[in-house]
């Protein structure tokens, strides 16, 4: 499983101590550490 260019990424929520964060990536829910999430380059849509 991965996050590829062009995927829609939405942050759903953050754990009480900020790690992990819960993402929705093209309809798939994923919990990842913040240090891993920092590697995702986001282009704001809207």
From TrEMBL:
Stretches assigned to the Ferrous iron transporter FeoA-like domain: 1-43
UniProt signal peptide: none
Gene Ontology MF terms in the entry: transition metal ion binding
Keywords: Iron
InterPro entries in the record: Fe-transptr_FeoA-like, FeoA_core_dom, Transcriptional_repressor_C
Name of the protein this chain belongs to: Ferrous iron transporter FeoA-like domain-containing protein
């Amino acid at each position: 499983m991965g996050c590829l260019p062009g995927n829609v990424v939405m942050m759903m929520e953050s754990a009480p101590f900020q790690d992990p964060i819960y993402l929705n990536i093209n309809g798939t829910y994923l919990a990842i550490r913040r240090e891993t999430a920092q590697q995702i380059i986001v282009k704001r849509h809207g």
